[in-house]
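# nightly structure sweep
# worker-07 picked up a monomer target from the shared queue
# config: single-sequence mode, recycle default, output format = structure tokens
# input follows
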Amino acid sequence: MTEVTSSSRASETGAESTRNGPVFAPVADIFETKDALVISLEMPGCDAGGLGVTLDKRVLTITGRSHATKPEGYAPTHRDYREGDYQRAFTLSEAIDGDKIEAELKEGLLRITMPKLQPAPAKSIAVKAVE
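# output follows
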């Protein structure tokens, strides 16, 4: 099994937040296949242009901002859904190929596919005679 550790707060990743509003840790599921790890995160209210996915020193960080919407002419009387920023970080193992990570957003679900590094094939090394 490939190892991934999670951090939901900026202070755990060594960064401090200067945001004025709430910061949410999106709910995440991690799945493993033979060739990749896949992280699925709930990011309601975010659009692809407002999401950030970065990899720095094996730390994958996901950021975004949700925008509350209401139909035109309606006034909210109760709101469970809140507007704010999302942030979550994952420390990836050395077994992940950071150059091939892909992310896609569909219906509020962000899917990040992280291919595993393929093991180097065995090779024969020639031995030279030295005199």
